[in-house]
Design brief:
The complex is a heterodimer.
Chain A: H1 2-23, E1 31-37, H2 44-55, E2 59-65, H3 70-82, E3 90-94, H4 98-101, H5 116-119, H6 124-130, E4 131-132, E5 135-136, E6 139-145, E7 147-151, H7 152-158, H8 166-176, E8 183-186, H9 193-204, H10 223-237, H11 251-259, E9 263-268, H12 271-277, E10 287-290, E11 302-311, H13 318-328, H14 331-339, H15 348-351, H16 354-359, H17 363-371, E12 373-374, H18 382-397, H19 403-418
Parallel strand pairs in A: 1-2, 1-3, 8-9, 11-12
Antiparallel strand pairs in A: 3-11, 4-5, 6-11, 7-9, 7-10
Chain B: H1 15-25, H2 29-58, H3 78-84, H4 87-118, H5 125-132, H6 134-137, H7 140-151, H8 157-165, H9 179-207, H10 211-219, H11 224-252, H12 256-261, H13 273-283, H14 287-314
Helix pairs in contact in B: 2-14, 3-14, 4-9, 4-11, 4-13, 9-11, 11-14, 13-14
Classes of the chains: A alpha/beta, B mainly alpha.
């Protein structure tokens, strides 16, 4: 009993000493910025933070890890903002968030720090996505677009070309596929954000539109949109060129099938190129990347992804935070991250920079595809719209409703929200 | 502090008198009880009652975080009326009820069976008791992710198994092919995960039944079935009700499992009320309506609890 008492006393004293020493620590002149960024397996972010700290001795950067997965990440940021919490000064923001975050007053306008002449150097669609109400709210640093990956060896053996239109894709698949050993095409039709990204590519490549310019009227349930969705339904149910479980498979599950060598075509983001060439891939050196197919008469378009650095409007050190955000998206940092890792730059000239191209020969091709990139509708209700459309598209893909019926119901529900 | 042995009842004492009495004679047992329970109540108030009041307050306002210019106007019961009028919310409630009732009944039957087996003497019983708890001890989100991979239509082990046994002749998309298949797959995972809890609680109940009762019954010539019906079941009832109470509440607000396995798909076929409420709150940033949905769920769960508690008290 006595022993326990003394150990409790010891513990209490230790805690007390710790608390006191923390509160009596000398006041610091140094400014601490808390920077929330994705995990980085190459250690580049840490290296760049060190570099910045050595150039700015009065700044201390604390790196906070992001949660894995964009949805969870979004929810964490929203909770933080809703509480007017300024504890994360610089954050990374997905391309669809600014229209939601900026009107709420959560992001700091960066016009002063990131003027138009600087903006011009980046992929245009990314700048467009970060601009809300005439102000810019984020500085792009990571380029990401939907790409169309193919197995060059299989196409060559079968004597086929890379498909240009969606019907070409179907024909090629039907000729060369041999499921379950070799599936034709792996899209991501799971009921989450990815499904919306896939859908806009069918919609836009058929000349369809999502919303009108005011963002108040729904256009995706017009003829072009219905055709696009009907084609998606046919891909799964009529032409049977997609993998088993396409409606319940997450992006990564689909990617695994492709890099394990069990599919000819795959729609995914930039990261798959590097994974396909990596050590664990069974298809290294046997892949190619191209624009996503289109409908006859339509254009090759791709859904814009990618990330930017933004400053929390509740931060206590906005000026310092904005300067740091500019640095982290600068030519210097983007080049370093491209050369020492696998982060695709957003600065156009970097995508054709000789050093970068020597390391990543595929980048000039990605840049061409990136010019066809389009941002998803800019509305604060995007998450809601996307959720409704995912639900109704699944009804159509399951053939419980016709494409027209599903899109009409979605349009009705969405108009109720946005008007 | 001095504690008086005898509590004298004096009803019409003013506060002043009371304080004086406490000074003179110390606290009564009852008063001491209240004093001791205050810290606990304070903590509960902070972490349970206070947030509940805030949520209830939110539910009477329009709060759209992504449209701050709307302000936070008071709208009375509009959020509730809107939700009750939306087929999506009603559907999610129906799916939840369906899911919860199937899960709880099935878990009760399986849990009872497992507990009866584990209650018998046999070699290695300790080890088996420990292993049977394993599914329940793993974090649910991890369990769900494992199962998602096992259900995978291309590389999932369940397809492989059934194909090689000849039960199915082509791969099945367990979570996406049809609404009924998806909800069944989810229920199977839920049973795998939470039946052990039921089994352990019932097992504890079984072990508290004195062996003499069975011996006496045997002497009176009771058969196995009679012993089960007349002794085991009646004496087990309290344990079963407690287990049912816990499981019903949990099943009713199940979330992580669905979040990882289906996200409510295909279509809306596995969207439970909790998942929809989460979407309203953090997807749509509609805190007014989302709070209303959670409050309605809370009311329902509380009613369920009260019903169970009443049953337990009757026993």
């Amino acid at each position: 009993m006595k022993k326990m008492k003394s150990s409790i006393l010891l513990f209490a004293t230790t805690v007390l000493v710790l608390v006191l020493s923390a509160s009596f620590a000398p006041a610091q002149d140094k400014i601490t910025l808390r920077f929330s960024a994705h995990a980085d397996q190459w250690g580049n972010v840490a290296a760049m933070i060190k570099l910045y700290e050595s150039r700015n001795p009065n700044i201390d950067i604390v790196w906070v890890d992001e949660p894995e997965g964009a949805d969870v990440h979004h929810d964490r940021d929203v909770t933080m903002f809703a509480a007017k919490d300024g504890s994360l000064d610089v954050i990374v923001v997905d391309v669809i968030w600014p229209p939601e975050f900026a009107p709420a007053g959560w992001l700091m306008p960066l016009d002063e720090y990131f003027p138009p002449e600087e903006q011009k150097k980046h992929v245009p669609a990314m700048i467009d996505a970060q601009t809300v109400g005439g102000h810019i709210y984020g500085i792009p640093y990571l380029n990401d677009i939907g790409n169309f990956y193919y197995r060059s060896d299989i196409l060559e053996k079968g004597g086929m070309e890379v498909p240009d239109t969606w019907m070409d894709l179907v024909n090629t698949c039907q000729k060369l596929q041999n499921p379950p050993e070799l599936f034709g095409f792996i899209p991501c039709f799971w009921k989450e954000q990815q499904l919306s990204c896939n859908f806009v590519e069918y919609l836009w490549s058929n000349g369809g539109e999502y919303l009108d310019k005011t963002g108040k009227e729904v256009l995706f349930n017009k003829e072009k949109g219905v055709e696009a969705l009907q084609f998606m339904v046919d891909l799964v149910n009529k032409y049977k060129v997609t993998q088993t479980g396409v409606l319940s498979m997450s992006l990564e599950e689909g990617r695994t099938i492709f890099t394990e060598g069990h599919a000819i075509f795959h729609r995914n983001w930039n990261y798959v190129w590097n994974m396909a060439q990596g050590e664990e891939s069974k298809i290294a050196g046997k892949t190619g990347v191209d624009s996503i197919p289109r409908f006859p008469g339509g254009e090759h378009v791709t859904c814009l992804g990618g990330w930017s650095h933004s400053v929390n409007n509740f931060s206590e050190h906005k000026d310092e935070a904005a300067k740091f955000a500019v640095f982290m998206s600068s030519w210097e940092v983007q080049k370093y991250r491209a050369l020492n890792g696998l982060r695709t730059p957003t600065i156009l000239k970097l995508l054709s920079d000789p050093d970068v191209v020597a390391k990543h020969p595929v980048y000039p091709r990605l840049m061409e595809i990136a010019y066809g990139a389009r941002a998803r509708p800019k509305t604060p209700f995007y998450t809601q719209i996307s959720d409704v459309i995912q639900k109704e598209m699944h009804e159509a893909l399951l053939q419980r409703k016709s494409a027209k019926e599903a899109l009409d119901i979605a349009a009705e529900e969405i108009e109720f929200v946005i008007q | 502090m001095k504690i008086r042995r005898k509590d004298k009842v004096r009803k019409s004492a003013s506060i002043f008198e009371k304080v004086n009495r406490i000074r003179r004679e110390g606290l009564t047992r009852k008063q001491l009880g209240y004093v001791l329970v205050i810290p606990t109540l304070a903590v509960i108030a902070c972490i349970a009652i206070f947030p509940f009041i805030i949520t209830a307050n939110y539910s009477f306002h329009t709060i759209k975080l992504n449209v701050p210019q709307l302000g936070r106007p008071y709208v009375g019961f509009e959020n509730y009326i809107r939700l009750l009028g939306s087929s999506r919310f009603i559907d999610s409630f129906k799916i939840t009820l369906f899911f919860a009732s199937i899960v709880v009944v099935a878990q009760l039957l399986f849990g009872l069976a497992i507990a009866l087996v584990l209650n018998k003497e046999f070699k290695g019983r300790g080890a088996i008791r420990a292993t049977i708890l394993a599914p329940w001890a793993i974090a649910l989100i991890i369990v769900a992710q494992f199962w998602k991979w096992m259900y995978n239509g291309v590389f999932g082990i369940i397809n492989f198994f059934f194909l090689s046994l000849g039960i199915i002749d082509k791969p099945v998309d367990w979570l996406g092919e049809s609404a009924s298949l998806a909800i069944s797959s989810v229920i199977v995972t839920e049973l795998w995960r939470n039946t052990p809890f039921m089994a352990i609680v019932i097992l504890a109940g079984l072990q508290s039944i004195p062996g003499e009762l069975y011996e006496a019954a045997k002497i009176d010539g009771a058969g196995v079935f009679q012993k089960f019906r007349r002794i085991t079941i009646p004496l087990l009832k309290p344990a079963i009700l407690v287990a049912l109470l816990f499981r019903s509440i949990d099943a009713f607000r199940a979330f992580d499992l669905l979040y990882a396995l289906t996200r409510g798909g295909p279509g809306n076929s596995t969207e439970l009320a909790s998942l929809y409420a989460y979407k309203l709150l953090f997807g749509y940033l509609d805190f007014g309506r989302g709070s209303a949905a959670t409050i309605m769920m809370a009311i329902f769960t509380t009613a369920l609890c009260l019903a169970y508690l009443k049953l337990i008290r009757i026993e």
